[in-house]
Specification:
about 300 residues
C-alpha cells in the first residue's frame, strides 16, 4: 500500500495478497484513501456493484456496465475474437470489425459487449445467446497533459499517445471485463496499480506496467523488459524509506514456506531495482539498494540458496 500514490485503485490477485491489505486498512486504519480490489471477486455482480460507492476515503469507480448488464450470470464470460474467428459462426460479430485495427476500448465495452443488440450476440443453446468482445486489438487514449502533471517518468521515457492492447483470450471473464472497464473509464484520473503482472499478459497490459516498490503502476510508457519497467527514483525512495522487514535482521528468526515466498518478493524488488539503476549507470544507488537488503535481512535466516 505504501508503494501507491494517493487515491489509487489497487488490483490484487488472490486471497493471500488481498486480506492483509484489507486488514491494514480496516483494522489498523492505514491508507484508507486506496481502493483495494480483489481480481477473483471482480467476477461477481455484487462485488462490482460495491465499486459504485464510496468506501472510507476512496471515491466510487466507474465500471461502465450497469447493474442489470452484469446481474447474476450475465456476462460471466463473453466470446473473444480468437474464439469467434476459429469457427464458422453465422452472422459472426467479428466480421463487423477490422481485426487489423485498434478499436477504442471504452466504445467496444459500452456499445458492443454491454449491448443486447443481436448483431453482437452468438447463440449457444436454444433461445440462449452470449455477449461478445469481437476484436483482438483495442486502445486506450492517453491524456498527455494530465499524465505529465500526475506521473513521474524516467529520463528518456517516450510517452505513447494510446495504450495498444492485444487481447489473447478466447473467453473473457467478468473479472477481466471489470479490469478493462475500470481502465477505460478512469481516463487517467486516478493511479491504477497491480500487485502482480503475470495475470495481465493475455490482456496486453503487462508491457504498460512499471514497478514502484512492491506495486506495479499502469503507465503510458511501453516497456520491453522487467528491468526497463521500473520507476527508478520512486522505487528507490519507497524501498529506502518505506519498506518494512519485520524481525528479519535478528538472527534465529524462523521463516516458514509462506513467509519465505513473501521475503523473496521483497528481495526481488531490491534486485530488479539494483539492475535497473546499474543499467542507468547509477552505480552508487544500486550498491546502496543491495546493501539495504543485506542489512535488513540476516543471511542465516533467509540464505541466498533457500527455495
Amino acid at each position: 500500500l505504501e508503494s501507491c500514490e494517493k487515491n489509487a485503485i489497487v488490483i490484487s490477485f488472490g486471497d493471500n495478497d488481498t486480506y492483509p491489505l484489507w486488514y491494514t486498512q480496516e483494522v489498523a486504519g492505514n491508507r484508507q484513501d486506496l481502493r483495494v480490489m480483489n481480481y477473483s471477486l471482480l467476477g461477481t455482480d455484487w462485488y462490482i456493484n460495491q465499486l459504485r460507492y464510496k468506501v472510507n476515503e476512496s471515491a466510487p469507480a466507474d465500471v461502465i456496465f450497469t447493474p442489470e448488464q452484469i446481474e447474476g450470470s450475465k456476462r460471466d464470460y463473453v466470446f473473444g475474437a480468437p474464439y469467434l474467428s476459429r469457427y464458422n459462426i453465422p452472422n459472426n460479430p467479428a466480421s463487423l470489425f477490422d481485426q487489423n485495427k485498434y478499436h477504442d476500448l471504452y466504445t467496444i465495452l459500452k456499445t458492443v459487449t454491454a449491448s443486447d443488440d443481436p448483431r453482437y450476440l452468438v447463440g449457444v443453446d436454444e433461445g440462449e445467446s452470449l455477449s461478445t468482445f469481437p476484436v483482438t486489438k483495442v486502445s486506450v487514449p492517453v491524456d498527455r497533459e494530465l499524465v505529465l502533471k500526475t506521473m513521474q517518468f524516467n529520463p528518456g521515457d517516450s510517452i505513447v499517445s494510446e495504450l495498444k492492447l492485444d487481447i489473447k483470450k478466447s473467453f473473457i471473464q467478468k473479472n477481466d471485463l471489470a479490469i478493462l472497464a475500470l481502465i477505460a473509464a478512469n481516463k487517467w484520473q486516478r493511479p491504477i496499480y497491480f500487485t502482480s503482472t503475470q495475470e495481465l499478459e493475455e490482456l496486453g497490459l503487462e508491457k504498460y506496467t512499471r514497478m514502484e516498490g512492491m506495486s506495479y503502476r499502469l503507465v503510458p510508457v511501453e516497456s520491453s523488459s522487467q528491468q526497463g519497467g521500473i520507476a527508478r527514483d520512486i522505487s528507490y525512495k519507497n524501498i529506502m524509506e518505506k519498506f518494512g522487514y519485520g524481525n528479519a535482521n535478528k538472527p534465529g528468526i524462523f521463516y516458514d514456506e509462506e513467509n519465505r515466498r513473501h521475503i523473496n518478493s521483497i528481495r526481488a524488488a531490491h534486485a530488479f531495482l539494483g539492475l535497473s539503476l546499474a543499467d542507468a549507470n547509477k552505480l552508487d544507488s544500486a550498491r546502496k539498494i543491495l546493501q539495504r537488503y543485506d542489512q535488513m535481512v540476516d543471511i542465516t535466516n533467509v540464505p541466498y540458496g533457500m527455495t
